[in-house]
């Protein structure tokens, strides 16, 4: 939708305001919109003008619907201040409609009047107008509303259906403005981006959100749930709108769009701890050990593996953790060159051998301490099944393994001491039992751990060796596209070796080591915009290459989902 040309005063909503909470809750929808091929191409300046024209031609339909919805909402509001605020918003839309003709002429959109409304636009405008007319589940028909307060609900519901559009476009405006090259004066959509990133539009959006907050103050929990559903539905309709835009040009995303399993092989690698999980698996194993350990005054049955008491275990774990943290920081510091270097994969590989030696010594201390003795296999399995994974991780991996057209290979490379914990987390209940697990294993005797660890993957060098072995084991009849997702220094070699390395989280040690060895960390969305600019007109060039020294940073699994699949 086009922007009202003037702001009516910026009001910053409180952090716990309704609109702010909903925007945060439905972040996934904003990410999917941002990563749509249309928005990426528009940001890069490579979007074909006809595609842009057809999108903008829908603008007048949005504006008319919003003006009408504001009029209905104003009639329902029983507060003079609310009526005035809605009236100003409506006048802004009407003024934008008057200016729309000049904008149309500038872009050569003479056909706009003949351009019919498309299905995605129609869905949103009908949704907004139906809400503003009181056609909301659980609400009486407009003519049967007994009191002014009941009519006020319709005003709140209407703002609930319209606010997401405003906030999404304000968000997109700022995100796209951030990737504009200040020296690029001929970007064809710079003015469009400037409209939505402007202080005027940002301020109007904040005012709309503030109005929604005020209209919702006296509503019941059930009524607030209705607004939440309306807000979410509006966000989903916006996604539909962006993905409904027809693009004839080649695009870098979604990655799976042009994937041909007959010619290409998609190989996805991921770390486990703090990449897939919220808590490190060593902490989970420690908790199992401490909780199930005997008390200091409790006699242990003969014939069973002798265990430390729970208090001894807690103290020993604490000492091991503190020693690990201190020595890890010292090891990282000792690896860093005195001056930052240009990227060289082999130089970094050599430096990380020092970290590999440290990890092996730390694991030896764990085994010698006996803290992993006596863990019951069923306890570990239950902990794995209840393990909380990062938001979006399960959905992404499920979509990958269930899509038969992809025929993708998924491998987890993990330092985790217990592969059974990972297998339980990725069990058939989550539909991820086909994921290949490469990790260490606890040694068991009659379903009770002996305290020994069968070491398979305990260092950065082990990880890259496993990565290379998997790749080498593939047949030569297909071209591999490798993607590695990780969060720590231990993942660095694999991240850089993969065609696409994606960093999740904010590990300071990873950044420190990477920076000193010439690794570039590029936020994923700006990186895709740059790739889109470089994409050949025929789409045949190979744009993803390993060992380039470039890693992409993602704020979460939703970004990765959008990269692979779009919406």
TrEMBL record:
InterPro entries: HAD-like_sf, HAD_sf, Haem_Oase-like_multi-hlx, Thiaminase-2/PQQC, Thiamine_Salvage_TenA
One Pfam family per UniProt: TENA_THI-4
Any one cellular-component term (Gene Ontology): cytosol
SUPFAM superfamilies reported in the protein's UniProt record: HAD-like (SSF56784), Heme oxygenase-like (SSF48613)
Superkingdom of this protein's organism: Eukaryota
One BP term from GO: thiamine metabolic process
Residue ranges occupied by any Thiaminase-2/PQQC domain in the UniProt entry: 37-134, 157-245
Protein name: Thiaminase-2/PQQC domain-containing protein
Native source species: Gossypium darwinii
